[in-house]
Hints:
The protein is α/β, with parallel strands linked by helices.
Amino acid sequence: MARYELVKRSVALITLTNPPVNALSSPVRHAIAKSMERALSDPKVTAVVICGENGRFCGGADIREFAGPLRGPPLIPVLDAIEAGRKPVVAAIEGVALGGGFELALVCHYRIAHSKARLGLPEVTLGILPAAGGSQRLPRLIGIPAALELITTGRHISAQEALKLGIVDQVTDQNACEMAVEFALKSVGKPLSSRRVSMLTTPCPPDLDALLEAATMQVKKKARGVMAPLACIQAVRAAATMPFSKGMKRESELMTTLFNSGQAQAFQYCFFAQRTAGKWTLPSGAQWNNSKPREIRSAAVIGLGTMGRGIVVSLARVGISVIAVESEKKLLENGRQMVIGMLERDAKRRGVSASLNLLNFTLSLQDLKDVDLVIEAVFEDMALKKRVFQELSKVCRPTTLLCTNTSGLDVDALAGVTNRPHLVAGMHFFSPAHVMKLLEVVCGPRSSSETIATAMSLGKKMGKVSVAVGNCPGFVGNRMLKPYLDQATFLLEEGATPEQIDKALEDFGFAMGVFRMSDLAGLDVGWRVRKESGLTGPDVDSKNPPRRRQGHRYCPIPDMVCEQGRFGQKTGRGWYMYDKPGDTNAKPDPLIQNLLETYRSRYGIQPRNISDQEIIERCLFVLANEGFRILEDGMAARPEDIDVIYLFGYAFPRHRGGPMFYVSMVGLERVLERLEYYHQAHPDVPHLEPSALLKKLVACGSPPVQKWREYIKTMHSHL
Ligand SMILES: CC/C=C\C=C\CC(=O)SCCNC(=O)CCNC(=O)[C@H](O)C(C)(C)COP(=O)(O)OP(=O)(O)OC[C@H]1O[C@@H](n2cnc3c(N)ncnc32)[C@H](O)[C@@H]1OP(=O)(O)O
């Protein structure tokens, strides 16, 4: 777990050896402690260098160990012994020095970093704080404002920035380890007291209180209900106002609170869920580690609406040449201007030059004959999409992959009109496509493993979190969204207001409640879909009772809002009112209040007081209930995939872990009992009926979410 060698006759070289990231697991901590003891007691050794194997210094604590009781030596005394040692210790930082890895570097007397190395204290993103002295040492080394920013955001910084901030002593393009050995030799005999960061006095700004207050306001606004950034601020305050030993005590108390809060578990679950999602598997046995993706050098995007434009930008900025296609000259020109503007702004923000030379714009599908992959992003109209796919089938060379950005239509029906159904898959981006991280890769029953591997790998290349899903209406994300939205509108019928429902969801942790979010997205989109599915519009059977459709409860209020031309922010009116079209400041609208009152009295609905608890339970338990059905149907491989989709595509609060993790924390038995209760109260809402999988899991003793897969593996998989 750590190799010990003597180099240059007098330097002890300690190499952490715990692939893939040299995390500080119990055996590694033990090996560091033993190696340091050996180095400090060996008279031949005059200096020590600590580095990591395979060009990675250290990725921090072994996060998997957080799930159980601490085993092996605690990290803090191991680090304290390094700092207190009487021989100079140099950290040779290559790859990453993160979390506990960065804290390890901070107790070394000198730090040499490779120019490509990245450093940071990302603990806050795991729901904790740097609790091996990081929150106390970093402010002493670089001052309060800079330390506060790094600790509360968890941002990774480059070696150059670390040098500028005074975190590292030298940056090199050469072998950092060899440089560190040379540096160590030169440091022998120099006094070490000023190199022990814990002994430094924190440079304390005169406006400390104002600074910390501003930081508190900022994190409260950015991460509603999240405890870790607030604890980080308190720890930094301790670094500014207390002696080191007392600050360490405070750091430890804050860490204990965070660890017991449940939020840390949720964040850490998210970390692993994101990595698990990349490990897709198909019923054929093909999976992420036995299927080779094709390299995509050129692509085409059909349709330059909001989605198409974002997809073009996502492709071009990772160096893929793109042909963008529109059906009319005016739309093409408009799309071209928008894409160029977006790419230029993006490049400016990243400090690189815009890859405009990779773009081509055309009105003709004939120009696509040589591209490696096509992403169709035309209107959500099956007939139109089928025509496009038929045409592509004729035009493109037989090996071109044909993908669709449909948000819920049948991918296999599109594959069926082509001469290469095995090369067809869904690539469902989320709006705005160049910003949102999620990509649902939709595996049709005929999609080949190479096609899926290529779509997943292309997603990764574009910086997306790609999740493989099955081909069913709405796939995973939008399929679950429907019952969630339904519950919100049923609650309106029963007596709630949009602002009450939004507040309950925002207090839960969503940045925006469902109605505020719908106003932002535009209400007309859903209205068009409902019209096309025969739920509303002139074709609706007049004999249909107004609050029932297709045999189930239906709430026509969203249609009534749209009929008034209220499409959300863009029209200045929606569920809320805005000062003018395009404004974002949502204000309660008395006209909506009137509409709800008139509606209720028309249907003889006696409004009742609805608690926040009911809002949360009905909206979120029904969401997870559909998630269970998706798992039963084999449309998602595991609960982690569903949670990742909701975290990255629907801004589900990370400190709740995602809908499936959330219900596991509430307790499946309780969720089952509440769904049964609500279903009894609303028997005409089939989505409230507890799913078979939920019942099965409760009957099996409510295993933790990571084990659910064992209970669904006998069920049919579409993945
Ligand atoms: C008293 C308390 C004392 C000390 C407390 C210390 C707090 C900490 O140190 S918390 C940990 C802080 N560190 C991090 O948050 C880093 C997390 N890791 C990453 O950000 C990335 O993995 C990376 C190091 C930047 C490398 O990225 P990449 O090359 O893209 O690889 P990945 O796919 O992310 O990871 C590969 C593989 O390693 C696993 N892994 C990564 N880091 C850790 C870790 N710290 N602990 C355990 N496992 C880790 C990751 O899960 C992947 O494994 P899979 O099996 O594929 O899941």
